[in-house]
Design goal:
This protein is mainly α. It contains 17 helices and no strands.
Length: 517
């Protein structure tokens, strides 16, 4: 099926590429990998310049300089000193860039692991903290994920102390919410960091590491948390180590900020105050608030493609956190009779499935994309080349629900629903890898805003699904609960298929997409 979809995609986009026209990259239509303070008008595709205007060709090689940041005709405008400027994050050494990629991925894993780790000790917390109902225990997970909606804020360490020292219900719930607020930073910014330092081909492999975090963390949380006596202290110590690494080893990768620092250094060295960076202008509080708070939603609701993708990813993410209520019912004392620790181990196949999907993406999907890039050069590869695996993942995700639901009877071997979790891991990772790459390729100039809106929506689903899961499971039982979710997931399968067919037309009408359709 994957080969048929890929073949269909290539046929469509071979025709699309044949009609591409060269677009000169000037300061007015240039695209940066950041989002910050770029004015929306700068993203409008301008008419071709007159012959006398200097243009900058797209470099098909891995080291690419974003045009907005190349020195223009203004002799005091600070930009990159040529395509090989060592200060450009795209030109940093590969070991350094891979270290930053791994560190940012671990930060994501730390945040998501902390979100689900209490699920294995909810019975103990009910006794020691006096939770009035089981739903209060569920709130320790939901409030953490709800905190993602308030971020991104700074900090990865000190918020954990509150959870570790809490000795009553109100304290633990408040500090769990605050923990989630601060944990939103790596979830939102790590993807943008990867976009700052990698070319499109290598970015696929780098995002593979990044995407493992949001799913490996929640999957390992119950498996490890069920056997650790001091879950919150363990999370605190681990977050403290990461804080030290962030302070001393995480360099700035945001291109406009680097150029602003370069301009400030130039002013200090020469004493000439005329040296300026492209974004070196005073920004009012209102403008900054608009960029931070309003722009993600403006981008989301103005872009039907981004909205559909976000709803798809949000549903998948919500189902992931619903599993933390469904698994204990299927494998716990109401089902196969396992205790909390052993029930947590049932999440391990989901983690293994994530790893298998990443390996498949790194060693099969991304090499094919690299070949495709060479064929398309110097034109960009159409973003729709990223979508076939999302179709495959959507089908597998639906199959996983029916497999898990209708083999969840205690009379069946626990191996069957447990292995269905492996299919969930494969399908979820394929969906997210494909759609994350599609968002980057389609909305590169506003990637931070697109990812912020996507993260908030996903977090709303992840926080709300566990709250009604218990009622669903009591009324419908795991069989029909999974069947209902499988039918809903089936409705999302055509989304990437439609974008494969109509994506070029939609991108041509987009205000935020730099890609020619």
């Amino acid at each position: 099926m994957a080969s048929l979809i890929i073949g269909r995609t290539r046929k469509l986009h071979d025709e699309e590429l044949a009609s591409f026209q060269d677009i000169p990259l000037t300061a007015t239509n240039s695209i940066s990998s950041d989002d910050g303070d770029i004015d929306d008008k700068a993203l409008v595709k301008p008419p071709p310049p007159p012959p006398s205007e200097k243009t900058i060709p797209v470099d098909p090689q891995p080291r690419v300089t974003t045009p907005l940041e190349v020195n223009s005709g203004d002799s005091f405008l600070v930009g990159w000193d040529g395509p090989n400027d060592p200060e450009n994050p795209l030109n940093w050494s590969r070991p350094k860039r891979w270290y930053l990629t791994i560190l940012s991925s671990i930060l994501v894993w730390n945040a998501t692991f902390a979100s689900s780790s209490p699920s294995g000790i909810i019975p103990q917390m009910e006794k020691t903290l006096g939770f009035s109902t089981q739903e209060v225990g569920t709130l320790t997970i939901s409030l953490f994920v709800a905190g993602y909606c308030v971020g991104p804020l700074s900090g990865v360490h000190y918020r954990k102390f509150g959870c570790a020292l809490s000795n009553d219900t109100v304290s633990i719930l408040v500090f769990r919410f605050l923990s989630g607020c601060f944990a939103a930073s790596p979830l939102t910014l790590s993807g943008a960091l990867i976009g700052d330092i990698w070319d499109p081909v290598t970015r696929g492999n780098a995002l593979s590491l990044f995407v493992v975090g949001p799913f490996a963390g929640p999957a390992l949380g119950p498996a490890i948390g069920g056997f650790i006596a001091m879950v919150f202290w363990t999370c605190t110590i681990f977050a403290g180590v990461l804080t030290i690494l962030v302070i001393f080893t995480l360099d700035e990768t945001y291109h406009p900020v680097i150029l602003q620092r370069k301009a400030a250094r130039r002013r200090m060295e020469t004493g000439d105050e005329r040296w300026m960076a492209p974004n070196d202008r005073k920004i009012t509080f209102g403008e900054r608030a608009k960029n931070i708070l309003a722009k993600p939603w403006k981008v989301l609701f103005r872009e039907p493609m981004l909205l559909a993708i976000t709803l798809d990813m949000s549903f998948v993410y919500g189902c992931l956190y619903l599993f933390f209520e469904e698994y204990p019912v299927v494998f716990g004392r109401e089902g196969h009779g396992f205790n909390a620790g052993i029930s947590g181990l049932m999440f391990l196949p989901l983690f293994v499935g994530c790893l298998l999907a990443v390996l498949q993406y790194v060693f099969w999907v991304n090499p094919r994309y690299a070949v495709r890039r060479e064929v398309c050069a110097p034109k960009p590869v159409p973003p729709e080349e990223r979508l076939p695996m999302a179709v495959v993942g959507g089908v597998l995700f639906t199959v996983g629900f029916f497999w898990f639901g209708w083999t969840s009877y205690p009379s069946f071997s626990y191996w069957s629903p447990m292995l269905a979790g492996g299919l969930f891991g494969i399908s979820i990772t394929l969906i997210f890898l494909s759609l994350f790459n599609y968002i980057f390729d389609t909305y590169l100039a506003v990637s931070a805003s697109a990812l912020a809106a996507n993260t908030v929506c996903r977090s709303l689903f992840g926080a709300s699904f566990p709250l009604f899961a218990r009622q669903m499971l009591e009324k419908l039982h795991p069989r029909w609960t999974s069947t209902l979710l499988g039918c809903i997931s089936l409705l999302f399968v055509p989304v990437p298929v439609l974008f494969i067919k109509y994506g070029p037309v939609l991108r041509a009408k987009s205000k935020y997409s730099p890609t020619v359709a």
